[in-house]
Amino acid sequence: xxxxxxxxxIRDKVRExxxxxxxxxxxxxxxHINETELAAExxxxxxxxxxxxxxxxxxxxIESEPGRGFRVTEMDVRxxxxxxxxxxxxxxxxxxxxxxxxxxxxxxxxxxxxxxxRRPEDHDATEAVALDIRWHRTLVEACPNRQLLELLDxxxxxxxxxxxxxxxxxxxxxxxxxEQHASVLEALxxxxxxAAASRLLDHWNYAAHTLxxxxx
Length: 216
What we know:
The protein is mainly α. The protein has helices at 10-23, 35-42, 46-58, 77-98, 103-114, 125-139, 146-167, 170-173, 176-189, 193-209, and strands at 32-33, 62-65, 69-72. It has two domains: 10-72, Winged helix-like DNA-binding domain superfamily/Winged helix DNA-binding domain (Arc Repressor Mutant, subunit A), CATH 1.10.10.10; 77-213, Up-down Bundle (Four Helix Bundle (Hemerythrin (Met), subunit A)), CATH 1.20.120.
């Protein structure tokens, strides 16, 4: 059971916990959110909880139903693809703004991919997605446009719900994504940012077009 939350700001901590539950599917698409139970679990009043829920609703992760409270936003192929394509365009823009990466950053990216499983029996979906999230953030962390990075992080939270679903099916995803990561890094090692950006776009588009392999 989750320990009562005591550190400020309470609203932000509650939001962080709920985002984690949404991403790892402890809160399933379409599920009603019981505010009374959550407030009791966290040991807080309904006010900061509701503030956190309203923030999540503004981010599109949950929906407010008049007179009925909140429920987790449903997932569908069309929405997923729209999100993947949007993140793709913004991440490519951020990479172009970032330019060449130093060797230390490239090695960090390589190490993250080395830690990913190559066999079904070694695969852990939660670990795989966590590493993938870090990989994509690290790729563009030096982008000078901070507003762009903040917008990307906001959209990624919605995309990651779909990525967790994909990652559960290793027999479908295999190591294709890792091969695409390596291709992006190969271009960056040569100092060819434009080739890396093109390959990154292909990587996201591939992920978008495999959504219906598991979602439907």
